[in-house]
Amino acid sequence: MNELAPPPDNGVPVHEHPVDHRSVQTSTQSKGKAGRIILAFLVIALLAGALGYGFWKHYTLHAEVMATAEARRDFVPSVRSASVRASDPFRIASWPGTTEAFEQANIYARASGYISKRNVDIGSRVRAGDLLVEITAPEIEHQIAQAEGTLTQVRANLEQAKANRDLAQVTWDRDRKLVQQGWTTQQQGDTDRLTLQSREAAVGVATANIVAQEAQLRVLNQQRVYQRVVAPFDGVITQRNIDVGSLVQADAASGTFLFALAHADVIRIQLYVPQDDAIGVVPGTQAVVRVPEIPGRDFSGSVARIADALQPGTRTLLTEIDVPNPDRALSPGMYCRVELKIPRKTPSLIVPSEAIIFNRNGLSVAVVENDTARIRNVTVVRDFGTSVEVSEGVAAGDKVILNPQVDLADGRKVTIRPDSPKPDQTKKS
User: Any idea where the Multidrug resistance protein MdtA-like barrel-sandwich hybrid domain is (predicted)?
Assistant: First the structure.
């Protein structure tokens, strides 16, 4: 009853020997080590592949860059160009100006009195010698009459002095012989001789009085002439300050201002020309005057006078221009614009503004020589907007590149792009 029963048979093999746990553990460790080695090889392979791929991409990019650089180096750009042309032999300079009468004068009274007659007014055109006004001064006539009476008196005094001189001369001629012969005293002879000298001096005084009186009479007659005020030259009355009945005074400092007279058949214009333009201005330089209120008409003139010396403060040259004005279309005092056609003293060249290169080296242009770009420095004299005037660096006929590339270098090969045909030419072709 107490005997052990055999284990049931459940299909599991029964080991006859006991299991070795050490061998099982060693086998497991070997398998783990092999897995790590395989993983390391895989990581190394991935790194090597990534590194190789990176080198390959870098080489490919470098090759592309080198190919692009070589292509860029060998590339010949097509450029637009324009020719440099010489400037005109004359330079046009324009300044504002004011017209002035060629001759103008303020006419003052030279005789005191009242205006009895006035023949002109503002705007009257007169010729030299025309009567403007008459001044009435009765006292002048009285003074003239008095001076003429005095002149008659001094002339009579002269005749009397001559008679006394002649009598003294006869007396002395007679008594001189008597004194020599002793019939008359020496004192009597001296008296007769000195009396003759006194009479001769009296004649001289009377003669001088006549001269002085005649001069005084001429002054009075001139005063009477001044009562008739006449025009000194041809012109037009631009101002009148008196009328009939006005009292005028003759005085060099405070005389009455009667009229202003201007001669406008020739207009005079004064300009102060800056130093850079004054070098070529000489008498005879052609000028054109334009007035905004007279559109479409040019008034031709020429430089008549220059100061030959610049103003130290402004460095300008005083220049006078005479403009014929036979029809009197121009009036003194008008605003105008004056253009001078100044001959050039030094040659200059015109370059399109599109060709100017501005960088740290200054201003330059690219000139095409034998299909090669040459960079030349230029000196700009004047800027006209679409073109500039230069004084050196290029020559007339040079081909300059328009809108050159930023990296355009000296010596680079270029080809000039042909000009595109105009629309009408395209239609004809």
Answer: 103-254
